[in-house]
């Protein structure tokens, strides 16, 4: 037979035998290697098909080695640590009526409704994203009265900030050249902080990106009119931190520190920047340089964890 005829007859037979051999070798893959059978068959089949003798022999010897001789007795890239104190949760009711104590009562349906309503009001009295998140969770409660009150409190919180934004925008539209520039800057500043309040309290998450951009826009306008406002500089830094622009965030936060911001207020954001950039040495140094932070509520347990 000619070389072409031989090749035409050889290829189908070789492909069939390669496929069967691939199925056999795939079944030898150790269970500890979590691989998809289909992809494994394709890869092994390609080796055997294009490297007829040495490909099959090489894969066979590799699988024999990993199946019977190679054992990973210790995974050095993994380790265990004790649960940090600020992450530990208790199954029982907390003694106080802070966020933790209030939520422990809200999620206990066997408690009297009056006690759970007081807990819901205690949650609403707090500020920040945790309080808003707990109100959102309470909107799915099995008790209709608690669920409706949670909806009302959450909606009321959004309306108060929304009214402040609407009032400032209305005054800004009526602003003319005869008005004081200081008043205009005050409106820019008020809008920047109000929009950020919507983001910080996690209100209307569908528009969070819009709120972030608006807050940055008005904060920049206010900053251009007055560069010595350290609170505004910290706000711009926090916005850039939220957007993931770490260099600008660090620039404005450090500038706020230079302009007179209290160090205890700035260090947590610098520590978060160091953590996000995986600079753990700098992170520990921030807390070590300010040991009094370990006694502050909120940030205290975090500082204590890293200082130890």
Q: How does the SSE layout of this entry go?
A:
Layout: H1 3-26, H2 37-50, H3 54-68, H4 99-106, H5 113-125, H6 129-138, H7 144-173, H8 181-200, H9 208-225, H10 230-243, H11 246-258, H12 263-276, H13 280-289, H14 300-307
What features would you describe in this structure?
Among the domains are: 9-68; 159-307, Alpha Horseshoe (Serine Threonine Protein Phosphatase 5, Tetratricopeptide repeat), CATH 1.25.40.10. The chain is built from 14 helices and no strands. It is mainly α and 308 residues long. The longest helix has 30 residues, at 144-173.
Compact overview of the structure:
With 308 residues, the protein is an all-alpha fold.
Output the CATH homologous superfamily of the domain at 159-307: Tetratricopeptide repeat domain
Terminal-residue CA separation: 81 Å
CATH class of the domain at 159-307: Mainly Alpha
Strand content: under 5%
Tally of DSSP helical segments: 14
**Named CATH architecture of the domain at 159-307:** Alpha Horseshoe
- Do you know the CATH topology of the domain at 159-307? Serine Threonine Protein Phosphatase 5, Tetratricopeptide repeat
Query: Sheet bearing the most strands, described?
Result: none
Number of strands: 0
The backbone outline, from C-alpha atoms, is: elongated
Structural Rg: 31 Å
Which segments are poorly predicted (pLDDT under 50) over 5 or more consecutive residues?
88-96
- Written as H for each helix and E for each strand, in order along the chain, the element string is HHHHHHHHHHHHHH
Estimate the helix proportion, in percent.
55-70%
The SS-based structural class is: mainly alpha
Mean pLDDT: 78
């Amino acid at each position: 037979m000619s070389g072409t005829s031989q090749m035409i007859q050889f290829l189908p037979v070789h492909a069939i035998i390669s496929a069967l051999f691939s199925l056999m070798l795939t079944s030898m893959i150790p269970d500890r290697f979590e691989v998809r059978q289909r992809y494994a068959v394709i890869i092994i089949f390609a080796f055997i098909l294009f490297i007829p003798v040495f490909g099959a022999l090489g894969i066979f010897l590799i699988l024999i080695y990993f199946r019977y001789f190679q054992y990973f007795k210790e995974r050095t890239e993994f380790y265990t640590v004790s649960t940090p104190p600020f992450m530990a949760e208790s199954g029982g009711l907390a003694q106080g009526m802070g966020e933790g104590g209030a939520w422990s009562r809200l999620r206990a349906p066997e408690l009297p409704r009056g006690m759970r309503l007081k807990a819901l009001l205690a949650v609403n009295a707090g500020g920040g994203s945790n309080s808003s998140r707990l109100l959102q969770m309470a909107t799915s409660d099995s008790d209709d009265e608690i669920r409706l009150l949670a909806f009302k409190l959450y909606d009321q919180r959004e309306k108060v900030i929304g009214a402040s934004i609407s009032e400032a925008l209305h005054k800004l539209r009526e602003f003319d050249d005869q008005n004081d520039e200081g008043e205009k800057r005050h409106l820019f500043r008020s809008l920047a902080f109000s929009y950020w309040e919507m983001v910080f309290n996690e209100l209307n998450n569908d528009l969070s990106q819009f709120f972030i951009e608006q807050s940055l826009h008005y904060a920049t306008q206010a900053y251009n009119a007055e560069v010595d406002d350290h609170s505004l500089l910290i706000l711009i830094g926090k916005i850039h931190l939220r957007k993931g622009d770490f260099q600008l965030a660090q620039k404005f936060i450090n500038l706020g520190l230079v302009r007179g911001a209290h160090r205890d207020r700035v260090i947590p954001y610098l520590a978060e920047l160091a953590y996000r950039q995986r600079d753990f040495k700098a992170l520990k140094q921030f807390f070590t340089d300010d040991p009094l932070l370990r006694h502050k509520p909120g940030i205290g347990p975090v500082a204590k964890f890293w200082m130890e």
